[in-house]
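Moderator note: this is an archived Q&A kept for reference. The question asked for a predicted structure of one protein chain; the sequence and the answer are reproduced below.
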Amino acid sequence: MAPMAGAGRLVSGLRRRLLVMLIAPLLLLAVLNAWTDYRSAGNVALQQDQRLLSLLPLLADSVISGGTERGERPLLMMAPAVEEFLKARPGYAAFALVDADGQVLHGEPWLGALVPTGPEPEIHSEEQGGVTWRILRQRQQTVHGELVVVIADGSDPRQQWARSVLLQVLLPNLVLIAAAAFAVGWAVERALRPLLQLKEAVERRSPRDLSAIDPQASPEEVRPLVDSLNRLFGLVNAQAESQRRFIADAAHQLRTPLAGLQAQVEAWAHAASIANPVEGRIVLRTDEVNQLRSATRRTSQLAHQLLALSRADAGAIQAQPLQQIELRTLCEEMLERHLDAATQKRIDLGLDAQPAFAQGQAWLLRELLGNLVDNAVKYTPAGGNITIRCGKREGRPFLEVEDDGPGIAAHELGRVLARFYRVLGTQGEGSGLGLAIADEIARVHQSQLLLRPGPGGRGLCISLALAEG
């Protein structure tokens, strides 16, 4: 159905929305986790800064004697806390004792730079040997005099976090998000599969199929939508059925008075053809009576075609059991019915019938073939030829009517099956319903009319393939 053409976009939009709604919280949690890790690392680093600050006076107290000469190294006896700090971080802990001239008396030489100018401790980070060090410097009074005491820690959690954020935070979270996106995508596709199946089931339906959809075949969340569709189908079907009943009833009611009127007109026409004008009697003019007879016949045929169209268009036809139909007998019957009309126009109406059996509704195929032959007789000029065929072609039974009349232009072939459509300039009587009725009957039989030019590009050939009986 046309409104369901956007269902693929709807399902795709639902999939994207579900993925965004499920993945966005994971991304937010990943960012929150990284921020929490950084805050935690900052708190730990602040505690380590406090610890380093507490180690500075202990390192100064570790100087137990001073040299007598300038630049002479003092003796050290490491305080237990300082010794424990240095041993606990091999390669990531260092110290230095620097004199007022910037000469390193003990410890790492590279820590001798940036001698503090005031008594307050100075703390900063510095890159050395591929390690980011947290360095504290302060002037302290020792037994050796005033020295610059330096403590360095290469295990600052903030610096470690900055280096390992990719491997320890971002990369695992990205892998988790990618895996979650795959899992969520798979789960969403599985969850939406019943909705896709419902969409495909509705798309595969014929426009004439307004039967209810089974709600139990759909997920519980979609059942209200299915119920609404079923109600809509029911309303449309009821309206269409009401229109069909109206057409059928109107056509049926018209048939009886039209039949009586036609009988009277036929009698008048017969009387007009043999009566001699007599003084004092009403004179029947033959041409006027013939015009009245022609109009009555057209009206009677229109009522019959409207009734046939209503019956052929009824959805209940598809529920009726199919019959085995002998196509040769059907063609012979149509030949006998239209032979007189063809003879009056000096048309050669022939039969090329091979034994064939098909599945279908006999009265509908009779109506279809009758309309095709009737059209051919009407529009084929005097002296023309019409052939009724049946048999098997490419393994399937078929019916065919061919004439050498004026035919139909190629650009008109797609329009002549519409109801009440007549090709402009067409000679002859007609209401434009014959081919429309035949097309409806072909659809009921799960087939379609094939219209093509006759032999040599002249005339019209209409064929219908059927299911084998």
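Archived answer notes: The CA atoms of residues 173 and 331 lie 78 Å apart.
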